[in-house]
Amino acid sequence: MGIIDKKEVQSAFKKEAGSLINKIEKELNRLNNDPRSKIHDSRIFRLFRYAHTLQGISGTCGYYKIEETAKSIAEIFRAAQDGKLEISPEDKVTVRKKLKACEELLKRSMRNNELRTTNN
Asked: Contacts by 24-31 with C-beta closer than 8 Å and gap 24+?
């Protein structure tokens, strides 16, 4: 097995995380307020998948604060999928704030050249 280049991992992570954050933002903007709609259900599913994927790649690459924030976003959409929550305008604001936090954490970690290999 070859040596993994830290800068390559960071570059790939930054690109993929940024793409997922953008996808979540776009789907969130398109989310309608009719929870009985099939389109609504498919958007909630995509929102969950994007957030869950962001959570997974963040943890895999050692960006644990982003992982935790993405997990909290994914939990909102999982609750909506399970019928325990109807996404309200306030929930959308919460998700947007959490996405902004992910973006800031991403910028800061790239600026500081951080890549943690432990969860401490």
From this structure: 24/50, 24/51, 24/54, 24/73, 24/95, 24/99, 25/96, 25/99, 28/92, 28/95, 28/96, 31/87, 31/92
Each residue of 101-110: pLDDT tens digit? 999 999 888 7
Task: Give the tokens for residue 45.
Answer: 């599913």
Q: What is the DSSP letter of 5?
A: P
Sequence letter at residue 52? H
CB within 8 Å of 48: residues ≥ 6 apart: 74, 77, 78, 80, 81
pLDDT at 1 over 90: no
> What superfamily does domain 6-111 belong to in CATH?
HPT domain (1.20.120.160)
> What backbone torsions phi and psi does residue 6 show, to the nearest 5 degrees?
-55, -45
- Residue 11: the pLDDT is 87
Mean pLDDT of 12-35: 89
Q: Is the pLDDT reported for residue 71 higher than 50?
A: yes
Instruction: Enumerate residues 6+ apart whose C-beta is below 8 A from 109.
Output: 63, 66, 115
